TrEMBL record:
Keyword DNA-binding in record: no
Keywords recorded for this protein, A-Z: Membrane, Transmembrane, Transmembrane helix
Organism: Parasphingorhabdus litoris
Name of the protein: EAL domain-containing protein
Residues of the full protein shown: 356 to 642 of 643
Boundaries of every EAL domain copy: 24-273
Length: 287
């Protein structure tokens, strides 16, 4: 059997595996040695409400700048952090930093924070999050948590207990990557979820008529469950037109802003509010 593939191909295959393993090992080593407080930074991506016609929240996204490896995206380090038991510390770093950002703003912009499967099944992580928020004195409604179906399926019972603990004190919970998981009504109904974030892989394929039908179905599930529907990955005007046809309450994507630092986000929202007030005054004068 091996002969059929030829000698060279087998060698290349092995090399690639070895290269991947070596890279993974490097990332894990750098992650273990990292000082998260200085190396992990936060960026924020606007979530735009189509009814209110303004930014109503922003998603917190982690960025890692390693002194050894340079900039590494979350797609490359979150999974490794989960597998090597480092994710809890990263999550708590992100939560701590997000709370400091919120405290620094005169008029706080509500944020959302991603939780990983490990966080969801750990009582300690959830307890520490609750403690950090309580010490900050901030209103829990300012911090939404994003979870995925895959993460919850690791231990559904534990995950729902922990999510209930967060939602009971006023944290909104959003289901991330919606449409790529199980879409099981029974458990969706039993969890304290107030928002479905439809995965951006659907917006990537909007040219295809079947994709638009699927988007309508996913938005229909949100409607049936009476929860907020957000479409992710809206990159241009055409995609916005299609998104609006599907009828979500809000959208997130490059068209409304790429992930940016806290100051940029604050200025962005401030500018939007000034425009809005001007608009209101104009309509008072005219009307
Ligand atoms: P996610 O939570 O689904 O976040 C959305 C990702 O899509 C972000 O990538 C964002 O930059 C990207 N995105 C947003 N709009 C557009 C668009 O219009 N077009 C395209 N092509 N992409 C768009 P990012 O920041 O690289 O994060 C990737 C994933 O890493 C996140 O997916 C999330 O699962 C994970 N992640 C990021 N930060 C954290 C964190 O602090 N904790 C945990 N546990 N996971 C995180
Ligand atoms: Mg997310
Ligand atoms: Mg998402
Ligand atoms: Mg995603």
């Amino acid at each position: 059997h091996a002969k059929k593939h030829g000698k060279n191909r087998v060698v290349v295959f092995h090399d690639e595996h070895a290269k991947e393993a070596a890279e993974r090992f490097q990332v894990e080593q750098a992650l273990r040695a990292a000082d998260f407080d200085t190396e992990i930074n936060l960026v924020f991506q606007p979530q735009f409400d189509l009814g209110k016609n303004k930014i109503v929240r922003a998603e917190t996204l982690a960025r890692w700048e390693s002194p050894v490896l340079g900039k590494i995206g979350p797609d490359q380090f979150i999974k490794i952090a989960e597998e090597s038991g480092l994710i809890a510390r990263i999550t708590l770093t992100v939560v701590g930093k997000a709370l400091r950002v919120l405290k620094s703003w005169e008029d706080p912009i509500p944020l959302s924070i991603n939780l990983s499967s490990h966080d969801l099944i750990s009582d300690q992580v959830i307890d520490q999050i609750v403690r950090l928020v309580s010490e900050s004195g901030l209103n829990p409604s300012l911090i939404e948590f994003e979870v995925t179906e895959t993460a919850m399926m690791v231990d559904l019972e534990k995950a729902s207990t922990n999510l209930l603990q967060l939602s009971d004190i006023g944290h909104p919970v959003a289901l991330d990557d919606f449409g790529t998981g199980y879409c099981n009504f029974n458990y969706l109904r039993s969890l304290p979820i107030s928002k479905l974030k439809v995965d951006r892989s659907f917006m990537e394929n909007v040219g295809d008529p079947m994709t638009e039908k699927i988007l309508h179905s996913l938005a229909g599930i949100a409607k049936t469950l009476d929860v907020h529907c957000l479409l992710e990955g809206v990159e241009n005007e055409l995609e916005l037109i299609i998104a609006k046809r599907v009828g979500p309450q809000s959208v997130q994507g490059y068209l409304f802003g790429e992930p940016m630092n806290a100051t940029e986000l604050y200025l962005h929202v401030e500018a939007q509010n000034i425009m809005e007030n001007k608009g209101d005054r104009m309509s008072q004068v005219v009307g």
